[in-house]
Amino acid sequence: MKRKRRTYEELDREISSLRIRLEETEQALRAIRTGEIDALVVSGKRGEQVYTLQGADHSYRVLLEGLNEAAITLTADGTILYCNGRFSEMTKISAELLLGSSVQSLIKPAEREMFVRTLHQSAEGPIRKEFCIQADDHSTVPALFSIKNLELGGMSAFCLVVTDIRERKRTEEALQQSEQHFRKLFLDGQRMQNELRRLSREVLRVQEEERTRISREIHDEIGQALTAISLNLKKLETNRKPSEVKKNLRSVQQIVDKATDFIHVFSRQIHPSMLEDLGLFPALRSFIRDFQETTGMRVIMKFSGAVGHASVEQKAAVYRIVQESLTNVLKHSGTRKAWVTIRKYQEGITLDVADRGKGFELAHASEIGGRRQGMGLLGMRERTHALGGKLTVLSRPGLGTRLRVYFPLSPPLGRN
């Protein structure tokens, strides 16, 4: 019984002693923070060593505590002798826990070896290098370490100023993204400029070809007709027989009728006057009827709603796009059947031209039939965009092609 009482008394004394030591330790840590003591005893492999804080007097500590930058003092082996509040905020660890701990444990594992080498290299002169700190909340803080080797009480130590560069990194990333964005815009602009130059050259080439074709057609058809009429009129001058005169007159009449038909068809190809006189749908019906007769292709037309509020330019664009699209179907699809659908909605009109031919890869949309597109798809797209519309192409090899054009309609007068 007496032995047990003595044991309890010993335990009570040990607990009291531990409490006193703990309180003394906490007081010492607070004293180090406030500059009330000038040395720190650190136990290591070589036993206890005293590190004096001669350069860390009260005014110096007050200065460091007031800095926006984090500041720490290290022993030669990386033990933290002192840190200000900013470093504690950066690491999310209280200063009491940081003092006496190893700074390497706060560095990103992949960078620890380089950090130790950098500390030793600072003996040759101050060094500035970026490392990542692993905070206690598992976040990573990129920081710039300014390291200087110094002497504390005859022993080697390090003074570090640590700058949080997260904001700078975010700014650099934003600048990089912005630079990439503008570089892409610049390259897109250059590509579009080159495409416009090519398109301009193509326009000039097509115009010249069209002038040549018109000249040839007029020369061949109208020139021959006028020559035939002239010959028949000369025959009338020398021929006095009524029957021959009638025969020559009938021949002249037939030649004139043929020339008139040619002029009518030719002028409609150059500019569809029916578009202005009768409207979009009758003009398209007439064109598609002639297109079917000329090519043997079957075209199924569907119209819904009136497009009276469409501008003259929009109607002309729809007409020309139908012409170009059906020509593309004839040349490239490998099929002899197409669908043309025009629908009018409250806000706009849509045009669909579809086929069930061989189709193509959209990635190679700029190359049709093994050659660069001329005034085809690109021309239709430019014509559509110029009038505020949108053109899309859907196609897959073996599944045909669908071209869709949308034009917004202006509200009729008297409505918002």
Structure summary:
The protein has 416 residues and is of the alpha+beta class. It is built from eleven helices and 14 strands.
Protein model, in words:
The model is unreliable at 54-60, 366-374 and 412-416 (pLDDT under 50). The chain is rod-shaped, with a radius of gyration of 46 Å. Helix content is 52%, strand content 23%. The strands form four sheets. The chain has a five-stranded antiparallel beta sheet, sandwiched between helices. It has a five-stranded mixed beta sheet with strand order 8-9-10-14-13, covered by helices on one side. A two-stranded antiparallel sheet has the order 1-2. It starts with a helix and ends in an 8-residue tail after the last strand. It has three domains: 12-166, Beta-Lactamase, CATH 3.30.450.20; 184-270; 272-416, Histidine kinase-like ATPase, C-terminal domain (Heat Shock Protein 90, 2-Layer Sandwich). Helix 6 packs antiparallel against helix 7 and helix 10 (312-333) packs antiparallel against helix 11 (377-386). The protein is an alpha+beta fold and 416 residues long. Strand 5 and strand 6 (140-152) form a beta hairpin. The chain has helices at 2-34, 58-65, 85-91, 95-98, 112-121, 166-238, 242-270, 273-277, 280-295, 312-333, 377-386; strands at residues 39-44, 47-52, 70-75, 80-83, 127-134, 140-152, 155-164, 298-304, 337-344, 348-355, 367-368, 371-372, 390-395, 401-408.
